[in-house]
Amino acid sequence: MMATTELALPARPQGEFSIGALARIYGGFLRVGFVNTMAYRLRYYTGIVTYFIYVSIYYFIWKAIYTHSASIEGFDFSQLLTYIAIGWIIRSFYYNNIDQDMATQVLEGKLAMDLIKPVNTQWMYIAQALGESVFRLTMLTVPTAVVLLLVYPVRRPAGVASFIGFLFSVVLSFFLVAGINFAVGTFAVRLKSILGLLRAKYFLLELFSGLLIPISFFPHVFQVAFAFMPFQYISYIPVLLYLGKISGLGILKALAIQMFWVAAIVAIGHLFWTWSSRKITIQGG
What we know:
By secondary structure, the chain is mainly α. The chain is built from 12 helices and 4 strands.
């Protein structure tokens, strides 16, 4: 029978770090994430093929749907194809496995080692995930973009302002997803196994973010509900910025709301972690 050991949350070393010291510390975790991902770089070649297949499937489905319609909910077929392609391209950057990593650490009894480090655990995981995303940017995101742009008639950004807003938004999307995943990962401390929760989160995040279907295609009541949630700022809003469907001061407003959601989700994750980590149960004997 599996034994468990409960550890009280250890006291963190006291002291303050300068901005430079913090940058070096979390920069180190970023490098760790980058280097660790290099060990699995071959799988990103198959990832390019996988993303191409996803976009191709959506291409043929929507092409059939648009046979009898020139425009659906403000999107012509060219815009929707661009929406799909850009959505999957940016997903290859903002996607991360913080929640799965935390669940694994709990099951292997290694989370206590994270607790004794004189750093913020939440930002340690986020920094490592950012390192992984930087690696994927070169090995998956850019190659996937090149392939899709060569094969399909994907539109260019609507303008310079739209593209700059889009780039900022994609970076914020990473932090938003990282914040959500960390918050979900904290439940592993108390629940031990969160496989079902991870599966539900994965599906809901893909759907509610607008990656699978543009939010404007949902019934009005759902669109209103989504407006009070952070999920559409993961994929839907960044791609709208790229397409120029949000312009002028609307770009700044969208980015401001996205930054608010990042701050809110990170704060919620911090509260969840504080609650969850009061006692750490280590599996093993």
